[in-house]
Design brief:
The complex is a heterodimer of chains A (337) and B (433). With 337 residues, chain A is an all-alpha fold. Chain A has 14 helices and two strands, in the order ααααβαβααααααααα. Chain B has 433 residues and is mostly helical. The chains are: A mainly alpha (337), B mainly alpha (433). At the A-B interface, helix 4, helix 11 and helix 14 of A face helix 7, helix 15 and helix 18 of B.
Chain lengths: 337, 433
């Protein structure tokens, strides 16, 4: 019995807890991508760098607050700085929309032109973030480090294996749940949210019923700014902030959005967790877990690791390919043609 | 569009290069021009896919890196101890993996579509994976243990490195075939994401499979298709020649090496450009443009859209692979960690858009021009920044930070250039006729 518990705890410690936190971060990122796809109808390549921009502003404000002696006690100060990050990102996204995307919207340009324009914005943001904060790793998590540490858990349960839950991981899940609940409440219950869904479902019909498209677009950018900044800050708190890593998050985020079905918010969340759990599960060495489940004093020979962690991109990619080949619309029937 | 536009643009580019030579140094100018020609070839490849056929490939980096791998696999001498230690095991492992995948695909196609089909295919793939690991891993460990500080990999074939250029094209074409088979025929955004992914995977393989090309330990000292500077400096004929034109032998040898590369690259570029132009004006080119402009109409005329897309995707990727092999040959080393998507994928896209999608001459002009800008933005940006911050005074922290971040002016500038061209001259500097 204790062996099974030990196996479960090991699994939870190395797979379930990290993958849940990572899945929540991916889900928030994928929600942003999927909203832009649903309303503005293009794949936004600048999303990773938007996340990096929001996180950068949050970090700068966090440093300012810390220097002024303001902290949140056990919680990271970054939470206090988050609204500033969201506001700055919102301003930035509205500005890019006004300066770049609106022109192509009026021209009714093809989605691929929007995509290329988003590549340009990606370059610009990439440069801006690196000029302001540099390319190095930044750690900005402060406050309590662990919700439960390995030692506390062992003392509590008397098990051989420990389970550590870092406060950033718990925080990620809590904040993500709040953000998603707020988003769904907004989309399903408010007049503006309903007009957004109507616009996403059928643009012409929405226009006929008097919905102002520019307003819908503006609100979409505001929501995307909030989602992207929250996702970026949570990822940065959980791991670290590095502009290059944020760019590379584009692939798992897009994989999540496509797996869930582009344009479907529920799908984006599902997709985020599917990608995160596969990525962590496939690259984890199951040796110890299986060791507990097998006969006593026995350990499997190999590491029981399917792929080395360096190939985590390959996992997002493989999931993407499988979905594209067998169910091109994604789990939740997105907008694929 | 006036016919004088292209000659004027190329004259302007020549002026930029000559200006660089006069103001900085001729060595810098030639370095920029050499990489510019390689960039032009990459841009030709992307232009073939995007400009001619409308395919959105953001995996250029992967194909370029495969070309670089070809330079190692062809040019480096074989490491015979490593081959003896585990070469056959590795080959057998790769054969098992390929066989398992092929068997899985065949089973999927041949078996009746019941629930058992999925189980059978999964069983074949899992069995294949286990057999592959059992055969491959000991071989990899043995190979990587052979003299790891200088070798630890299988080495290449020891052939003249120039052969790597076509082979790089073939490697890239093979990868493109696999991707195209799966991702083409779906919507364009999906091809974009799929190619973005495959490029990252290619780089991950290069970084981690040490038996193949030493991973992050890099392969240095690739053989050259041109003479070494030191040999030139030791040859009395060259020294006399250098004195004859009034240069010291060291400078002259460096210039001579760069000029020989320039000649080789120019020949490759000329051949590829000629082929691209012939293809564009042939019935095949007309068909490709018809497919690009209206897939449904072209399909109704009996054109096999998916097959043509696959064809042009493979051709364009092969061109990128050739350019990648040339670049690694020029560098003389393969450094997997130097492959960044911004530099090797998205910058090439800026070149194509700026030059003019659909116009081969435009792609060439865009390649050289944007590369020149990419290199020169840094010194220009640093000078401007020094001027702009001169009011802050020496030793100001903000000034030091701003001066230290001038390298990233490149990304900013490229983004602005792309956005400005896309907005005000969406068809590029040399529009398609």
């Amino acid at each position: 019995m204790t062996d099974i518990l030990n196996a479960l705890v090991t699994l939870a410690n190395y797979v379930i807890v990290p993958a849940t936190a990572y899945g929540a971060q991916l889900a928030l990122g994928a929600l942003g991508v999927t909203l832009i796809y649903g309303i503005l109808r293009f794949s936004n390549f600048a999303h990773g760098d938007t996340m990096a921009f929001g996180t950068m502003v949050t970090i700068l404000v966090t440093w300012g607050l810390q220097a002024a002696g303001i902290t949140l006690g056990p919680l990271p100060t970054a939470l206090l700085a988050l609204p500033f990050g969201i506001a700055a990102t919102a301003l930035l996204l509205l500005l890019t929309d006004r300066a770049v995307y609106r022109f192509y919207r009026r021209q009714r340009a093809k989605p691929i032109i929007f995509l290329i324009a988003s590549m340009g914005i990606m370059f610009v943001l990439n440069g801006v973030v690196r000029i302001i904060i540099g390319v190095d790793d930044q750690y900005f998590a402060d406050g309590e480090r662990f919700l439960i540490s390995v030692r506390t858990f062992r003392d509590l349960t008397g098990l051989e294996e420990g389970l550590a839950i870092r406060s950033t991981q718990a925080l990620t899940v809590v904040v993500a749940v709040i953000a998603v609940a707020a988003l769904f409440w907004f989309l399903n219950r408010t007049r503006t949210g309903k007009s957004m869904r109507a616009y996403s479902d059928n643009e012409d019909l929405a226009l006929l019923s008097g919905i102002d498209p520019e307003r819908v677009v503006r609100i979409t950018w505001l929501i995307v700014a909030a989602l992207a900044t929250i996702a970026g800050v949570l990822y940065g708190l959980d791991k670290s902030f590095k502009p290059g890593t944020y760019f590379q998050l584009l692939l798992p985020i897009f994989a999540s959005a496509i797996v869930g079905g582009l344009g479907s918010p529920v799908g984006a969340i599902l997709g985020g967790f599917v990608v995160a759990f596969s990525e962590v599960g496939v690259t984890y060495a199951f040796r110890r877990v299986v060791g507990y489940l097998g006969p006593a004093d026995w350990q499997p020979e190999g590491l029981l690791q399917l792929l080395s962690t360096d190939y985590k991109f390959a996992v997002s990619f493989a999931i993407l390919l499988i979905v594209l080949l067998f169910r091109p619309t994604g789990i939740m029937k997105g907008k694929a043609l | 569009m006036s016919s004088a536009r292209a000659p004027l643009l190329f004259a302007f580019i020549a002026l930029l290069i000559v200006g660089t030579g006069m103001l900085q140094s001729w060595s810098t100018a030639l370095t920029v021009l050499n990489m510019g020609l390689i960039s032009a070839i990459m841009a030709l490849g992307v232009n073939l896919q995007w400009g001619v056929a409308g395919l959105f490939n953001v995996g250029v980096m992967g194909f370029v890196a495969l070309g670089g791998l070809a330079a190692v696999l062809i040019g480096m001498p074989p490491v015979s101890e490593a081959w003896a230690a585990g070469g056959l095991r590795i080959l057998a492992g790769l054969a098992i993996a390929a066989g398992a995948i092929a068997a899985g695909v065949i089973a999927w196609k041949r078996l009746p579509a019941t629930a058992w089909r999925g189980v059978a295919v999964a069983a074949i793939l899992v069995a294949g994976l286990l057999a592959y690991r059992a055969v491959m891993l000991p071989g990899v460990a043995a190979v990587e243990a052979v003299n790891p500080s200088v070798a630890g990999y299988l080495g290449g074939l020891g052939l003249p490195v120039i052969l790597a250029w076509p082979v790089g094209g073939l490697l890239a074409a093979g990868a493109a075939w696999v991707i195209g088979k799966t991702a083409l025929g779906l919507r364009s955004d999906y091809l974009a994401i799929a190619t973005l992914g495959i490029a990252e995977i290619v780089i991950a393989v290069l970084k981690n499979e040490d038996w193949l090309a030493r991973g992050v330990k890099n392969v240095n000292g690739l053989p050259r298709p041109v003479p070494y500077e030191i040999d030139l400096q030791n040859s009395s004929g060259f020294i006399n020649f250098a004195h004859g034109i009034g240069l010291d032998p060291v400078t002259a040898s460096s210039l001579a090496v760069k000029l020989s590369y320039l000649g080789l690259f120019a020949v490759v570029l000329a051949v590829l450009l000629w082929l691209s132009q012939m293809a564009l004006s042939s019935p095949w080119g007309r068909m490709m443009r018809a497919i690009r402009d209206n897939e449904t109409a072209a399909a109704a005329m009996g054109k096999n859209v998916t097959a043509r897309h696959l064809q042009v995707f493979i051709l364009g990727s092969a061109v990128c692979g050739i350019a990648g092999a040339m670049m690694t040959t020029l560098d003389g080393q393969l450094v997997p960690s130097s492959y960044q998507p911004l530099r090797f994928t998205f910058l090439v896209w800026v070149m194509v858009i700026v030059g003019g999608s659909g116009n081969n001459w435009g792609a060439v002009a865009g390649g050289i021009l944007v590369w020149w800008l990419w290199v020169e933005v840094e010194p220009i940006g640093a000078a401007l920044m020094r001027l702009a911050t001169s009011g802050l005074g020496e030793g100001s922290a903000l000034r030091d930070h701003l001066l230290g971040s001038t390298p990233y002016m490149r990304e900013l500038t490229m983004g602005l250039v792309l956005l400005l061209v896309l907005r005000f001259s969406p068809r590029g500097l040399l529009p398609e006729r």
